[in-house]
């Protein structure tokens, strides 16, 4: 067992440059290496692809990877080719290839060069390909995006349903099913359809602690708000999702007019334009893609810093999958969704013409989306609960990373108003949709109400002192809380539930949640610029390395992140590696990448070190970038976002003193921290100046000496924070 562990870790370092596996990766890989059927539920950004890529590189033969989109396959192939000296180590086999290219792929497989073959399910079904693959040594079949198998999944693909039969025709090999998002119903469907109920199942946490979730009311100024938001992320990559092609074009145009480098992406564009726009995004020639969900699974870019939903999606699975495109490198990602009940009603109209069974599924999924958008609880807790996972909103990782937790919504007692709504639904014989229930309450007599003589009833206009928007919001909260339900077959008609009937008999407290109120002045306290390098890095070298990253990528015709990912570039700036061996020790690099792309990088860093007389401390060159590095990045990013220090400490289970100790380690390593906001809350300008001057003139930075000097006028924590500020401003 120890030998296997050592070999796997050795291979991980050699091929991918990582010292340790994350999460369940190692257990999954051992299951695959032991030729077991394996089922993996692992969130986007959790290292799912590595679970089958590493075994494929190690096992004899070729692994077949079934993937739904050509663009996604291309990204994966580029990444694998980057860690090997053999171009043919990974190939795509699909409709985009000509005959000569297909022959090359087949030749590489026959000669044992190709370890990973990416195919679409339609391609795998072709008799020519099946006949060829039957004669080859196949190590295993990985079914990626396995939720496409299930009708309850958010990207159902009928051609996925027959995969097991096709695989049986090729060879009796282990099957690995992988998905980033699946409720228990979908999981059962996948295992049953792939006929692998005996599979070793590994379910990682769905929690993505580096993502910040924010839902805002959608107003007529939504496009202005998006422009303001995007402009706070200069030169950062982001995706804006819209439900319709028309809206995609409109939003992309508005962003372009406002000097934001953006392109549209939807199925209505020709294939060449779609491919060009995607490549522009991957190569960082543009910053923002405005897209329909056609772009959902076609992107594997690790450094997407924000995902905006202009329109709320059809299901929480879709929402989770799409927001999961942000921060896949472990860096920060901001997930902003705009919510309007009008959008929900449009989605309900789309369902109206479908069979009843399909309507029921769609309606049930929509109710969960409404619940998420309107909840006042931790959005992370709500989302994880949906996927069957409990979350501790106090101690859990990322506990303070959503708008409801950082800025709790106001609530007020609405017992009397709830009673009125439920009584109106009952007295109008449960035959009205939401709008007409609200019209009855506010006294707006339209044709339907007049025809039913509702305008002559004593309850008509009983709630006219409050606006229609108030009653509509309350109605939705009553649907989520289970006091009312919508009748599927009579599109949108409200019915009373048993719970609602009991409320009329025995009314009790109901705390109605009010919407957040956003204005332009307050935007800055919620939406903050996310600095990729954590502000303390050598900015000039960082800029030079990013420029080189782009030019090397263009030379090799791969995306910049396929050369070195953003965390690797940032680690180079901290460690100043000047040889290939040193570069191989940088986070996420490894021997293969160091040899393949490293020469120009170490030469540039070497020149930079010489020209600027930079001292390279040994501990920086060789130090590990494991848990401490993750904590360091977390502290840098959250102080950049001006999160209260107490909240940062709490979210990581640290005492305030432990947090200050970690901050000291960060600044002693030469990295700056932006903590002025925290100090401004403790000390006024004059006090700060007094302590700053003390450290400037003192021969020692010992806190006890400072405490004695000021005779207890300042708390120890205040002095320690001021020492951090002093070192940031003067020494770093």
Describe this structure in words.
- Helices cover 51% and strands 11% of the residues.
- The protein is an alpha/beta fold and 732 residues long.
- The chain has 5 domains: 2-203, Rossmann fold (3-Layer(aba) Sandwich), CATH 3.40.50; 211-375, P-loop containing nucleotide triphosphate hydrolases (Rossmann fold), CATH 3.40.50.300; 411-513, Winged helix-like DNA-binding domain superfamily/Winged helix DNA-binding domain (Arc Repressor Mutant, subunit A); 539-618, DNA polymerase, domain 1; 627-731, Arc Repressor Mutant, subunit A (Orthogonal Bundle).
- The protein has a 7-stranded parallel sheet, with helices on both faces. It has a 6-stranded parallel sheet with strand order 8-13-12-9-11-10, sandwiched between helices.
- Helix 34 crosses helix 36 (716-731).
- The model is unreliable at 1-6, 518-537 and 617-627 (pLDDT under 50).
Number of strands: 17
Specify the CATH architecture of the largest domain. Answer: 3-Layer(aba) Sandwich
Strand order of the largest sheet: 3-4-2-5-6-1-7
Number of domain modules? 5
Q: Indicate the percent of residues in helices.
A: 40-55%
Radius of gyration: 28 Å
State the end-to-end distance.
46 Å
CATH class of the largest domain: Alpha Beta
Annotation field: number of helices? 36
Regions with pLDDT < 50 over 5+ consecutive residues?
1-6, 518-537, 617-627
In CATH, the topology of the largest domain is named: Rossmann fold
């Amino acid at each position: 067992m120890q030998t296997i562990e050592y070999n796997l870790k050795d291979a991980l370092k050699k091929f991918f440059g990582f010292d340790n596996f994350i999460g369940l990766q190692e257990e999954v890989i051992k299951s695959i290496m032991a030729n077991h059927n394996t089922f993996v539920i692992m969130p986007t950004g959790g290292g799912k692809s590595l679970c089958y890529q590493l075994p494929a590189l190690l096992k004899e033969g070729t692994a077949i990877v079934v993937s739904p989109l050509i663009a996604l396959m291309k990204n994966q192939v580029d990444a694998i080719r980057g860690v090997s000296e053999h171009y043919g180590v990974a190939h795509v086999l699909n409709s985009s290839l000509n005959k000569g290219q297909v022959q090359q792929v087949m030749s590489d497989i026959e000669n044992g060069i190709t370890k990973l073959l990416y195919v679409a399910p339609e391609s795998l079904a072709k008799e020519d390909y099946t006949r060829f693959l039957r004669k080859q040594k196949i190590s295993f079949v990985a079914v990626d995006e396995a939720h496409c198998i299930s009708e309850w999944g958010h990207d159902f693909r009928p051609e996925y349903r027959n995969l097991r039969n096709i695989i049986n025709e090729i060879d009796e090999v282990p099957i690995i099913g992988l998905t980033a998002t699946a409720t228990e119903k979908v999981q059962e469907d996948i295992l049953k359809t792939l006929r692998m109920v005996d599979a070793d199942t590994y379910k990682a946490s769905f929690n993505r602690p580096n993502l910040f979730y924010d839902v805002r009311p959608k107003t007529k100024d939504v496009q202005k708000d998006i422009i303001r938001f995007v402009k706070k992320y200069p030169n950062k990559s982001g995706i804006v999702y819209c439900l319709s092609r028309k809206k995609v074009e409109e939003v992309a145009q508005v962003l372009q007019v406002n000097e934001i480098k953006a392109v549209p992406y939807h199925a209505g564009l020709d294939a060449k334009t779609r491919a060009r726009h995607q490549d522009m995004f991957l190569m960082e020639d543009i910053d923002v893609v405005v897209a329909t969900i056609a772009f959902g699974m076609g992107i594997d870019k690790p450094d997407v810093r924000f995902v905006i939903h202009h329109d709320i999606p059809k299901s929480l699975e879709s929402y989770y999958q799409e927001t999961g495109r942000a921060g896949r490198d472990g860096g920060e990602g901001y997930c902003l969704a705009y919510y309007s009940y009008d959008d929900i009603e449009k989605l309900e109209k789309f369902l109206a013409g479908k069979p009843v069974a399909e309507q029921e599924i769609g309606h049930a999924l929509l109710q969960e989306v409404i619940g998420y958008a309107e909840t006042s609880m931790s959005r992370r807790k709500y989302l994880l609960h949906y996927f069957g996972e409990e979350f501790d909103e106090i101690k859990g990782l990322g506990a303070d990373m959503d708008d409801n937790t950082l800025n709790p919504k106001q609530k007020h007692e609405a017992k009397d108003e709830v009673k009125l709504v439920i009584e109106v639904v009952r007295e109008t014989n449960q035959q009205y949709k939401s709008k007409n229930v609200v019209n009855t309450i506010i006294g707006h007599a339209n044709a339907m109400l007049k025809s039913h003589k509702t305008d002559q009833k004593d309850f008509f206009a009983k709630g006219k002192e409050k606006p229609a928007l108030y009653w509509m919001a309350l109605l939705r909260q009553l649907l989520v809380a289970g006091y009312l339900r919508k009748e599927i077959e009579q599109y949108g008609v409200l019915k009373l539930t048993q719970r609602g009937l009991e409320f009329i008999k025995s009314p009790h407290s109901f705390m109605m949640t009010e919407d957040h109120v956003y204005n332009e002045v307050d935007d800055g306290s919620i939406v903050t610029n996310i600095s990729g390098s954590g502000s303390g890095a050598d900015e000039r070298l960082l800029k030079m390395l990013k420029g080189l990253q782009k030019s090397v990528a263009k030379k090799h015709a791969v995306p910049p992140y396929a050369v070195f990912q953003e965390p690797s570039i940032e680690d180079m700036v901290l460690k100043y590696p000047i040889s290939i061996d040193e570069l191989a020790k940088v986070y996420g690099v490894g021997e293969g990448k160091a040899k393949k792309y490293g020469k120009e990088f170490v030469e540039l860093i070497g020149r930079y070190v010489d020209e600027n007389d930079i001292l390279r401390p040994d501990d920086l060159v060789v130090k590990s970038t494991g848990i401490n590095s993750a904590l360091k990045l977390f502290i840098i990013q959250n102080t950049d976002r001006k999160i209260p220090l107490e909240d940062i400490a709490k979210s990581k289970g640290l005492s305030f003193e432990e947090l200050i100790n970690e901050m000291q380690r960060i600044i002693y390593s030469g990295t700056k921290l932006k903590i002025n906001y925290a100090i401004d809350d403790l000390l006024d300008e004059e006090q700060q100046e007094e302590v700053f001057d003390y450290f400037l003139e003192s021969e020692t930075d010992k806190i006890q000496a400072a405490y004695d000097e000021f005779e207890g006028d300042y708390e120890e924590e205040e002095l320690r924070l001021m020492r951090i500020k002093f070192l940031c401003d003067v020494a770093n």
